Amino acid sequence: MNEADVRDRLRQVEDPDLGDDIVSxxxxxxxxxxxxxxxISLALGAPYSPTETGIADRVRxxxxxxxxxxxxxxxxxxxxDPEEQVLPGVKNLIAVASGKGGVGxxxxxxxxxxxxxxxxxxxxxxxADVYGPNVPRMLxxxxxxxATQDETxxxxxxxxxxxxxxxxxxxxxxxxxxxxxxxxxxxxxxxEDVEWGALxxxxxxxxxxTGDTQLSLLQTVPVTGSVxxxxxxDVALDDARKGLRMFGKHExxxxxxxxxMSTFKCPDCxxxxxIFGEGGGQSLADETEMPFLGEIPLDPAVREGGDAGEPIVRxxxxxxxxxxxxxxxxxxxxxxxxxxxxTSQR
Length: 346
Prior knowledge:
Layout: H1 3-10, E1 14-15, E2 20-21, E3 28-34, E4 37-42, H2 50-62, E5 69-74, E6 93-97, H3 105-119, E7 123-127, H4 135-138, E8 146-147, E9 153-154, E10 157-158, E11 161-165, H5 180-192, E12 201-205, H6 212-220, E13 225-230, H7 234-249, E14 254-259, E15 264-265, E16 272-273, H8 280-288, E17 292-295, H9 300-308, H10 319-344
Parallel strand pairs: 4-5, 6-12, 6-13, 7-11, 7-12, 13-14, 14-17
Antiparallel strand pairs: 1-2, 3-4, 8-9, 10-11, 15-16
């Protein structure tokens, strides 16, 4: 068997999202045959996403009847100069944003990160909500970052996630009263002076709105995808549109829109109630031609889990936890589509 034979077999592997085989889509970086092993590098950039895991499994399947062992690796060229990267060990940086407060953005960010970690990914969670950092409380993360001799910070870990937050750096209950330049300086230091290591995903919980923190992020680090959080009612949808326009101006891929606090299922009567309206997130996604990442029910257990430091996505018995797990998988899948589409168009 030679390289051409391997490529012919790989033409049987379809990308379910892009609608062609991985060879025609230029998703096979290289094929090396060494002794009894086929070393194949694929242009897959969303580790542990269900779709890309399925593509890798299919590659092994079409080569299973050969006498070779199959060694798969994944590498996506993001077009960045390695020497200029602020976070060279981070494969994907997903920003979670909302146009307004009160839509449960931090809850969504925490459960997205925890859901990705449950899939098996190496995950970091950065609480960039400078003026209202509450991610540590939502995870009961009491451990403080450790300083090294080189004056860098080693982030604490919880539930398989590396964590960093302004809450670690200021006194408990102390307000943060900073102007824009100070915010930019501190955020830049947290990117550069924290030992994040190798991560498949970093999830960034942005503050609500479209201010200094968001601009600092988009100007400093290469965001690979963004998630817009909204609730069903019109006032939240209006502000979500502003968030979409912000990312559009900076040519940041939007992975999709997720509707939080959708239907409430009454535990007493069993009926479902659209307290904040219904269908708004889907309508906004249709209107803006963006992917819809799903609906997260309005569930008291989400609040209870946040107060107790246990993300509901980790509860295997919870229907709301399942909604978060599906959302995390869809977001990861969409991140993969962004990378594979870009590669196929080169």
